[in-house]
Structures are given as C-alpha cells and as structure tokens.
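Treating backbone geometry as a discrete language has practical consequences that deserve illustration. Part of our work consisted of pairing the sequence of a single chain with a tokenised description of its backbone. What the numbers capture is local backbone geometry rather than side-chain detail. For completeness, the protein is quoted in full, as a sequence line and a line of structure tokens:
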Amino acid sequence: MPAADDQYRPSPEDVGAITLNRTVDKVGVQTGTFTADTRPTDSQVEILIDKAMEDVGCAIGYDIPEGLWDRARHVVSVRTAMLIELTLYAHEIRSGISPYPEYKALYEDEVACLASAVQAAEAGQSLDDAASAGLARWGYPAPSYIYGGVN
C-alpha cells in the first residue's frame, strides 16, 4: 500500500489544470498536462511535485485524513505551479507578467484552510465538518436587517 502522502500526490495533469498557460508543447498546442514536449517537461514537473509535497508537509504535517486528500492534492498542485514559475519563469515574475503573485495568494489561503481542516479532523470533528473548516458559510433566510427591516 502506498504511503498516505502518495494518496494526495497530484499528477502532472492536476498541476496542468492550475497552470494551463505552461502546458504548451513545442508546436504551440496547449496540451492541458505536461509532457516530454512542454516546458517544463513532465519529468521536471514530477521533481517539482516532490518539492511541493515537502513544502506542504512541512506547513501542515504529512498525515492528512483521507477525506481531505482532494483538497491537499489541490494545495500541492498550486505550490507546484508556484515552483514552476520560480524555476523556469523568474524573468516573468520580475517583469510582472507571471501569475506567481496570484498563485502565492491562492496557496497561502488554501494551505491555511487545509491546515484548519486537518486540525478540525484531529480534534474529532466529522470529515464533512473538517472539510469545510475555514470556508465561508451562509445561512438562509438572511437576517431581516439585510432587507431593511429591524433586527
């Protein structure tokens, strides 16, 4: 059986879904994933996924409950997209044309949300409750003051 962290390890295709603009092959076709003909290649992305897995593991721990694996896979994919920008497109970051700042903001929000969910799961909350930890919640009907009434 694979290690728990292998269960939430993203594929190059998962990362490609985050950074479609980098999944262009040598003839200019957007593939939606990384291949031997993209920059970075699929092999390079696998190495960056390893590094992103370490980063996320250091940030929140490596033992993530099974019900949170999809969220963890997404967080690692975003971190990998950041590493792609840092390693291959640093000149675009300096020029202000890279999506790196947006990936960084997304990663910071998502890793904090995942950390909250893991903590909630460790505290004994159900995985449904833990999975929504840190997310905004709304209730209906809305309070009357929203409609101009008196509360």
Q: What stands out?
A: The mean pLDDT is 87. Residues 4-147 form one domain.
